Each structure stands twice: as structure tokens, then as C-alpha cells.
Amino acid sequence: MRILVVGSGGREHALVWKLAQSSNVETIFCAPGNGGIGDIATCVQVDATDVDGLLSFSKKERIKLIVVGPESALAAGVVDAFEKADIPIFGPRATGARMETSKIFAKGLMDRYGVPTAPFKTFTAFDEASRYIASLKPPYVVKADGLAAGKGAYVVREREEGERAIKELLLDSILGQAGHHILVEEFLPGVEASYLAFTDGRSILPMAPSQDHKTLLDDDLGPNTGGMGAYTPVPFLDRAMCDQIDAAIMQKTIQGLQAEGVPYKGVLYGGLMIAGRKPSVLEFNARFGDPETQPILYNMESDLLPVLLACVNGTLDKAEPIRWKEGVSICVVLASRGYPEKPEKGKPINGLQDLAGSREAFVFHAGTRKEGKEYVTSGGRVLGVTARGKTYADAIRNAYDAVSCISFEGMQFRKDIGKKALAFKPPDK
Question: Whole-angstrom Cα distance, residue 312 to residue 116?
């Protein structure tokens, strides 16, 4: 089978890497790809949001399956165009992608169908929003409605922070149109988890739960980023809790979309807050997570291709359960100096050759390009160093041992990825 993966990040490298292991895959292309992806697939210089370019290339190369990575491509209507051309594609249409591209749409759907989430109100006028937050006692959360690359959520802990947040969004337009409609919601305490499931629009097939680390610095300090690392599985999400999430959140959301005539095929990603034994939705994403995809696929024993095809063909209810490797997988993101605001680029990357052929670790490329035989940085999040181990401590040690082999000027990374799993103590039964 000839496959095109759309995107250029670590998530797409993981997808290409995993699909390349399938005996039924003949050729993999990636548009636009990155330096590392080019080692195992043919990179095509077509932007992920260039719908016409992607369609033209796929017809010319007789592509039999498209796998969409980034939310920007979903929002641009890539899936709609390929379905109209009768070319199999994995991902939701633009209407379904509103679960991510419009937080207000997603919250409204959750409210209508009883999916647990924080109470909220929406605003477009600064004065009205200002009067409302003046009546609130922090903490609470202010969110931009649209896509904001991880920068659209403000956890307000002091009164003046709330006023500043709504001013930046509604008056200063720092996020443009994405922040012209906002929501203010109740703060949910607890511990966060990422819960991803495959779906064909009727059934779901959950992946192993994971935990992302969103802020730049250790101990959840510093600015929000696209994600500085992740691990799977999550010790505080046992089988009973996962069953509860499947029924009360994931399946109920898919049923709500189906009831409203919104077809949804692809990945539904729930960003959850767990308080005790009660899960609630912070937000939904409409695609594979990044960096969560890296450790999830690194720990996946099953062939990925049949699962993707079952989603596209509407036969997920007949798919076999996913088999997972024993143990733990962890991904540590290496980022450029200046990330997330103004990342430096063009820095030579050293040490990758020392990890070639490693049995314990794999380096997924994100913001890289190849110059001759060398790799250089080309974005904010540069590499996702991913490793496995029998225990959380083993996986963490293997990951950071691999990180120590790599260097580039200005390299920054968190040193506490997986620390929360080590600190977890199961409750007394």
C-alpha cells in the first residue's frame, strides 16, 4: 500500500516509523516531513494545509491512504477534499475538527450530551466579560475559542490576571480571530492525563493513556508549550477508570457527534483532569497528540495500519484489541533556545549517530532539516528522545541517558519527565 502522512513534526515521524513496520506498506511519503522522516520515507515539499497540492500529488502517485497529523490540515478541510475525491483518508472532516478548532463548540456539545466538564460562560464583548470576572473568586480559567498553539488558556489565580487575559484576547487581539470569542470556566483541580482513542464515528478503540508535560520548565513552571515530554501508561488510570472514561466521556462524545450529524473518523483526544476517581474533560483535540504519540506508538505491539483502515472503512467494531508491549515508554523533548516565543534555528545537532541502532531508545525528529549528511535545527521542538524500560525508573533512566548523547547550541529540556509517575502511590484498598 502507498501511504501519504501529512505533517512535519515528531508525531508524524512516529506515524511514519510505525507504519513502515507493516508488511502491507509498500511506500510512504510525508508532506512536508523533516530531516529524520526523510531517512525512512520520501519527503514531499507540499505544505500540510495546501489542499490542492496534496490532492494533486496523491492522484499522481496513486496514494491509497492519507494519514493527517496536524490540526491545521484538518481545519483547512483536507479530509473533506479527499473524501470528495474518493481517496481514503484518516481524520475527521472540518466539521468534526471543530472539537479542537472551537472550544465553544466542544463545550456546547459536552453540555448537551452530559459529558463531564467544567461549567462555563462565553463572551465576545470586553465590558461584559469584565463585569462577569469581577464577580468571580479565583482560580478560574480564561480560554480563547480558536486554535492558539497551546497559548490560548490562562489559569487565573489573581484578580488582575483575569482582567489582563481578557484584554489581551478581546481588545489587543494577540491571537487574532482565535481569541475574539472567549470562554470563562471553573477551575478543575486534580491531575491531568491524555486519553486518545481511535474511532470510526460509531465505535471507539482506546490507546494506552499518557501524561503530557505542557510547560517549558521543571515542576510545571514557565510558559505553556506544545508539550515538553510525555510517558505511557499512566499509573493512576487503572482498568476500571479507563472503562469509566470510555463510557462516560469518549463513547458519549462520539454518540453526541453522531446524533448531530457530524461524521467523525480518526482520533479523539481527551485532555482530562482526574480528581479522585472522577474524570472531567479540560478540552478535546481532533488528532494524535504530540508528544504523546511518540511514547504511545513506541510501546504499541500491534500493526497500526489495520486500525487506521478500520476507522476509515467504518469497521472498528470488528478490530482486535490493541496489543501493548510490557513496561513503560517515555519521551523527552529537546527544544531550541528561545522556544516557545522565538526559537533559534540552524544549529548543528551532534550525537545522533551514537544512538543509531539502540535497542532502548529512538529519536523522533520534529524541528530538523538535513544539510548534506548533517542535521540542523529548524524549529522550536527539535527532537523527541523516546525510550522504554520495565519500570518507570528504568524508562526515565534510559531516556535521559540517551538525551546525554545529544547536543546542539542552546538546547533546553525538562529534567523531570515521568517524575509524577514515580511519586504516585496507589490508594489503600
Answer: 28
Across the range 157-186, mean pLDDT stands at 94
Amino acid at site 384: G
What residues contact residue 365 under an 8 Å CB cut-off, 6+ apart? 10, 13, 34, 35, 36, 37, 375, 382, 383, 384
| Cβ neighbour number for residue 401 with a 10 Å cutoff | 15
Which pLDDT score is estimated for 249? Answer: 98
Nearest CA among 219, 267, 271 for reference residue 245: 271
| Residue 39 per-residue DSSP state | G
Mean pLDDT of 43-65: 97
C-alpha cell at 186: 471553573
Q: Report the alpha-carbon distance of residue 428 to residue 426 in Å, rounded.
A: 6
Task: State the Cα–Cα distance between residues 200 and 265, nearest whole angstrom.
Answer: 4
Across residues 303-330, what is the average pLDDT?
Answer: 97
Half-sphere exposure of 360 (CA within 13 A, CB side): 14
Q: How far from 122 is each of 176, 256, 415, CA to CA, in Å?
A: 17, 21, 38
Cβ-proximal residues to 338 (8 Å cutoff; 6+ apart), any chain: 344, 380, 410
Q: Mapped to the 3 state alphabet, what secondary structure does 301-313 carry? A: CCCHHHHHHHHHH
- b/e map 156-194, b = 16+ CB within 10 Å: beeeebbbebbebbbeeeebeebbebbbbbeebeeebbb
pLDDT band at 358 (very low <50, low <70, confident <90, very high): confident
283 C-beta neighbours (distance < 10 Å), count: 18
CA distance 149 to 130: 25
H and E: helices and strands count for the chain = 14, 22
pLDDT tens string 6-41: 999 999 999 999 999 999 999 999 999 999 999 999
